[in-house]
Design brief:
244 residues; mainly alpha; two-stranded antiparallel sheet
Length: 244
């Protein structure tokens, strides 16, 4: 009986530890989701704000390209990144909900085991007599073996689940950070200080000559090179001769 009471105490301690782990895990998940939402807001602001527009350059290019949009931006490209981040957030939330449900089920099972053990203890105390001592000992040993086996299995399952969630969360955060870094690097690397795709979208696939292949767009026919005066690093190339 004393041994069973010790086992019950150990189970209670394990349940308390698991509850603490679940609470910490929930807090971590909430923090990760908040960070992802902040990242989505930042990307949205950058992609759809005045920072991603070059009014002077766009208006000059717009005058010579039929399909270009004045004040062009690359917001719809950022929307793709935002959708990816949102999908990742949804996946993480679903995984977290499933794991939290699984852990709650484990805790319920442990509580049921504790109740059963308590009932067994009470029954043993009430009906314990010399005639049934051997039977009680056998039943107790059998119950102890089952409880220990179940506890080991439950602990292993909980550890594996927590490790999987931690790994998935870390991988998702790394993916999101990589996307943000690549986006920022792309934004800060071309003709507009923050918008390399803006000029490309404004000029479109219009004929003309390459200003510089690394810039990712073509100079529209008839645009004077002085349109690009003051744009850092843009080579000033003359217009191609126009066929009379």
């Amino acid at each position: 009986e004393i041994f069973i009471i010790i086992i019950v105490t150990v189970i209670v301690i394990i349940v308390i530890i698991i509850v603490i782990i679940v609470m910490i895990f929930i807090v971590i998940v909430i923090i990760v989701i908040i960070v992802m939402v902040i990242i989505i807001v930042i990307i949205t602001i950058i992609c759809h704000s005045w920072i991603c527009r070059e009014p002077g350059l766009d208006s000059a290019l717009y005058a010579h390209s039929g399909n270009a949009k004045p004040g062009g931006h690359w917001g719809h490209r950022c929307d793709i990144v935002i959708v990816i981040v949102i999908i990742i957030v949804i996946v993480i939330v679903i995984i977290d909900i499933v794991i939290i449900i699984a852990i709650v089920i484990v805790i319920i099972v442990m509580v049921v085991i504790i109740i059963i053990i308590d009932i067994v203890i009470v029954i043993n105390v009430i009906v314990i007599v010399i005639i049934v001592i051997i039977i009680v000992i056998v039943i107790t040993i059998f119950i102890i073996i089952i409880i220990v086996t179940v506890l080991i299995v439950i602990i292993v399952i909980v550890i594996v689940i927590v490790l999987i969630v931690i790994i998935v969360t870390i991988v998702m955060v790394i993916i999101i950070v990589t996307i943000v870094i690549v986006t920022i690097v792309s934004v800060t690397s071309a003709v507009s200080p923050l918008c390399p795709l803006g000029a490309r979208e404004s000029c479109g696939d219009i004929g003309g000559h390459h200003l510089d292949l690394t810039w990712g767009f073509q100079l529209c026919p008839g645009v004077s090179p002085d349109v690009f005066d003051g744009v850092p690093g843009v080579p000033q190339t003359p217009d191609p001769p126009i066929d009379p």
